[in-house]
Every structure is written in structure tokens, then in C-alpha cells.
């Protein structure tokens, strides 16, 4: 507590898709073990290091255990503000890593082996709560940022834009967002699936289920302590960023193109904030958190008093080399960012 803590950054390399294999794409990303990954292609030969690297054969459980997600859940229960976010090119496996298969629903749940970081964290949170015998009050809020509008995914009726405010005590917060209490695994998984089905997605040349918005699911954890002890308030926030994309590659036009430009602008603002935060404290100038709604909502977890895990997702295909290198450089910069939990 209070000590400088580096962002933990892990990398996940998805398998080549059937389309990529049929097309004859080469695999240009290779795991070297011990958190190192090598990119070898014409004019590009580089090695990058991370806290952990999960290659195409890694199971969802291996990613949960190896990324440090279990420790993050425990820290959130102890009153810390914890965030995990997945980023990378469109179609690189971010939503699958966080949630598991897209086809799942309340009537057709996913196979337990395929469940993502979110469901595994919910299970871990409720198991820890029972084993400690602690009296926890749990609630969840679920938002999306679509074309620079913040929308509530849990409130009934069509999603409407909510104002983003700032206060000295709370920092940036969303006014009038709905927070729903839950006590069981079934209840929180139901909220997750309900909100995810309302999220904006579209099909394009690189991804049949491309997320067109950034989504933030926050679990609020309040431990009702005995009268002698103060209660602890922690949060566990999951951020599924929309993927960066080149309009030429995706074939987007019209509304899809407008969405892509909005996504890329907010990711650029996030990259700029990370670059500034990666500088030594004495050399930092103003951090431009106000440049986008995404960076405002992530200000606390990136540059303040939070504990953050970043999961960078990439494709090993030679055709995606440019975007893959961009993600790897982005993730390498993020490893230098520190916070004071």
C-alpha cells in the first residue's frame, strides 16, 4: 500500500484462424518461454518481454491463473481499486479472453473449460467471500462508450447517453448509472450476459462479431465489518476495449467507418496517456486524461491509486504484422507505468 507498483502486462497470442491458414498466412510470432516473444518477418526481427506470455495452446484456466487474476480479486476484496483490461487489434481474442465464447446465453451456457477471466473471477470472489465468512455487499454496473457517448447496459429501455462528471472526492464518474446488487454466481453471470447482448457489435472483413464500443463492467465490493473496524470498499473493473482497426483492411464504410474512427481516436488518446505515464515522474508533463471519455474513466486505474492488469491480445498472422507490432510496442510502454495503490 502506497508503494510504487508497476502495471502488470501479459500477452496472449491467439491461434491462426481457418481463413488465415487457407490463405497461406505465415506465423510470425513465436513464444520463447519466460515471458519473451519473438517476431520474425521481412525487415522485422524483434523480441519483447512481458510478465507472462500465453501462446495458442494456453487454456482459459491457464490465463486466469498465470495472469495474476486471482491475486487481483483478493486485493479488490481488501479495499483496493483493481482494473483488468484487454486490448489489441480487432479479432485478436479480447472478448473471448474476458468472457469466453460469444454464442453463450443464459439458456445455452458455455462449457466450463471455455469460461473467461470474468466468470472465473466472479466464482473466485464468491468462494473467497464464503471461505472468509466475510459479510460482503456486492453490486455491479455495466457501461459502454459508443461514439464518445457513455451508455448504461443494465438500465431498462433503449440505452441513453449519461453525463460524465468530475468531483474532488470521486474523480471522474458517470452520473445516474444503475448499480445492481447480486449475491449468487447465477445472478452476476445473468447481468453480464444481459449487458453484453445489448452492446453494439457489427460484422466486417476481419471479424464477424466486432465490438463497436468499449465496455466497462465494475464490481463494487463493500465489506461490512464489525462495528469496531471501518468497512472496506474495493472495486474490480473489467474493460473490454474495442479493437483498433484499419478501415482499408476491414472494408468498413458509412456508419461502420464513423465507429472505427471514433474507436481509433479514443485508443490513440489512451496510447498518448500511457506514453506520458511511462516517463519518469520528474519528466512527466500534463497527462491528457480529458482527451476522451475512455481515458477519463481509466484515469484512476492508470495514473492514480489503482492496481492494473493489462492483457494484450495479438494475432500471429503475417497479414496482421503491422497491427501486432503496434500492440506489442503499446504493451511494452505500459510496463513502465507505475501507480501508488
From TrEMBL:
SUPFAM superfamilies xrefs: P-loop containing nucleoside triphosphate hydrolases
Cell compartment(s), UniProt? Cytoplasm, Cytoskeleton
Transmembrane segments in this chain: where? none
Q: Name one GO molecular function term.
A: microtubule binding
Q: What is any one of the record's Gene Ontology cellular component terms? A: microtubule associated complex
Main localization of the protein described in the UniProt heading: cytoplasm
Keyword presence, Cytoplasm: yes
Which residues of this UniProt protein bind ATP?
Answer: 88-95
Q: Does the keyword ATP-binding apply?
A: yes
Kinesin motor domain location: 6-337
GO BP: any one term:
spindle elongation
Which keywords belong to this entry? ATP-binding, Cytoplasm, Cytoskeleton, Microtubule, Motor protein, Nucleotide-binding
Membership in a protein family: Belongs to the TRAFAC class myosin-kinesin ATPase superfamily. Kinesin family.
Q: Which PANTHER family match?
A: CHROMOSOME-ASSOCIATED KINESIN KIF4A-RELATED, KINESIN-LIKE PROTEIN
Q: What is this protein called?
A: Kinesin-like protein
Q: What is the lineage of its organism?
A: Eukaryota, Metazoa, Chordata, Craniata, Vertebrata
Amino acid at each position: 500500500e502506497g508503494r510504487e507498483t508497476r502495471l502488470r502486462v501479459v500477452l496472449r497470442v491467439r491461434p491462426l484462424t481457418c481463413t488465415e491458414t487457407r490463405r497461406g498466412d505465415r506465423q510470425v510470432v513465436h513464444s520463447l518461454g519466460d515471458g519473451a516473444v519473438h517476431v520474425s518477418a521481412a525487415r522485422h526481427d524483434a523480441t519483447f518481454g512481458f510478465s507472462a506470455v500465453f501462446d495458442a495452446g494456453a487454456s482459459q484456466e491457464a490465463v486466469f491463473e498465470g495472469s495474476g487474476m486471482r491475486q487481483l480479486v483478493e486485493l479488490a476484496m481488501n479495499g483496493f481499486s483493481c482494473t483488468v483490461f484487454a486490448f489489441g487489434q480487432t479479432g485478436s481474442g479480447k472478448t473471448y479472453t474476458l468472457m469466453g465464447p460469444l454464442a453463450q446465453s443464459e439458456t445455452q451456457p458455455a462449457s466450463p473449460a471455455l469460461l473467461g477471466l470474468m466468470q472465473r473471477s466472479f466464482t473466485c470472489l464468491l468462494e473467497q467471500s464464503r471461505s472468509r465468512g466475510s459479510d460482503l455487499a456486492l453490486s455491479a454496473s455495466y457501461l459502454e462508450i459508443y461514439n464518445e457517448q457513455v451508455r448504461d447496459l443494465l438500465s431498462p429501455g433503449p440505452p441513453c447517453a449519461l453525463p460524465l462528471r468530475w468531483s474532488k472526492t470521486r474523480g471522474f464518474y458517470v452520473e445516474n448509472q444503475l448499480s445492481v446488487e447480486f449475491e449468487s454466481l447465477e445472478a452476476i453471470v445473468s447481468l453480464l450476459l444481459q449487458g453484453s447482448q445489448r452492446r453494439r457489435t457489427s460484422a466486417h472483413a476481419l471479424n464477424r462479431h466486432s465490438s463497436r464500443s468499449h465496455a466497462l463492467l465494475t464490481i463494487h465490493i463493500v465489506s461490512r465489518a464489525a462495528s469496531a473496524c471501518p468497512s472496506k470498499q474495493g472495486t474490480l473493473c473489467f474493460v473490454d476495449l474495442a479493437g483498433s482497426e484499419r478501415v482499408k483492411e476491414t472494408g468498413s464504410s458509412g456508419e461502420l467507418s464513423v465507429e472505427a474512427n471514433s474507436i481509433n481516436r479514443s485508443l490513440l488518446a489512451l496510447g498518448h496517456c500511457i506514453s506520458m505515464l511511462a516517463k519518469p515522474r520528474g519528466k512527466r508533463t500534463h497527462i491528457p486524461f480529458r482527451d476522451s471519455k475512455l481515458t477519463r474513466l481509466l484515469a484512476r486505474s492508470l495514473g492514480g491509486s489503482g492496481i492494473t492488469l493489462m492483457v494484450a491480445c495479438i494475432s500471429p498472422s503475417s497479414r496482421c504484422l503491422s497491427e501486432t507490432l503496434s500492440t506489442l510496442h503499446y504493451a511494452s510502454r505500459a510496463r513502465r507505468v507505475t501507480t501508488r495503490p
